[in-house]
User: Fold this.
Amino acid sequence: MDYDSRLDSALGALHTEGRYRVFLDIVRKQGSFPRASWNRPDGSVQEITVWCGNDYLGMGQNPEVLNAMHTALDNAGAGSGGTRNISGTTAYHNALESEIADLHQKESALVFTSAYIANEASLSVLPKLFPGMIIFSDELNHASMIEGIKHGPCIKKIWRHNDLAHLRELLAAADPDAPKLIAFESVYSMDGDFGPLREVCDLADEFGALTYLDEVHAVGMYGPRGGGISEQDHLTSRIDIINGTLGKAYGVMGGYIAASAKMVDAVRSYAPGFIFTTSLPPAVLAGATASIKYLKSHQELRDQQQEAAKILKMRLKALGLPVIDSPSHIVPVHVGCPVKCKMLSDALLNDFGIYVQPINFPTVPRGTERLRFTPSPVHDFGMIDDLVKALDSLWQRCELARNAVAS
Assistant:
């Protein structure tokens, strides 16, 4: 077996399709983000503006978050020292889980090393806790949810994205006595659309199903305290398990679930992805706790972020650029070709100092390739103006189609 040739073939296919991903070596500048420095392959350094980050509210440089992390590092050292079961549960873990439980008005919460692991571990273990479970999954659910469902011993039913009639049809056809779970998201990050939370909860009540909601792109961003779309829509009590992240709006790292005390206890006791993983370090936990506390009482950051997204969408639409319309904070611009998507991304970076990664298959279906912009409170009007002018210029240079320009 010529292993190298197999690797060459696999990597070559990505290059041929224009889907090969290049990692940029960037240095974020605390206090001046979204400004950053790009260490170019030729050894030079270029100043850039980051437009594709998930630090949605700039909390990665919030002084209260940083002070909490410094204090924890000085007091407790670098690592946690073990798994949660073996010396790796600290006062910092307990404080963060209490803060998360309060955020979502749940009895308990459980912190994982990432929201991906939280989804994979939780969704794969639930069918073991409820033998014979049928999981109904939205077709656009995140890869972590798909992997978790795949690895669980359950019957899997995929319902068309946000199609409530299809979900009802699948639920009605299922064994009425089988345990059921509906897994879906509140904000789908590639299109920026919302899941139909209230209607899904109604169907769950009608058919006796549990609800599992991924709020990764919504926590910190929506609701009067940042509890997500479920809090905004007053549906928190109707969601059985909420998944969230500490690495996006909260600007730190980690993921979690929030649920009843019994549910959390069962997941922590049976999920290998939780049991056999070294726990997060105290500094990260302290920073996440401080960030959640801060955003519970700072609605102005959410308001500023929504305003920035609204302005960017409005200006791009006015130029006829194909913005995928959505009610959320995410601004996707459709390109439809992986090669052109990469071309645009490269030109924005090299010619204008604007960093946005191309979003290609398998993150999105082939033919729907796009640039995905994430404006934030730390992107000022000058940065928005620079981005809009750059995109206008490149769309013309690359002879890309436009929608009818608004008069």
Summary: The CA atoms of residues 30 and 170 lie 49 Å apart. The chain has 14 helices and 14 strands. Residues 299-318 form the longest helix (20 residues). The mean pLDDT is 95.
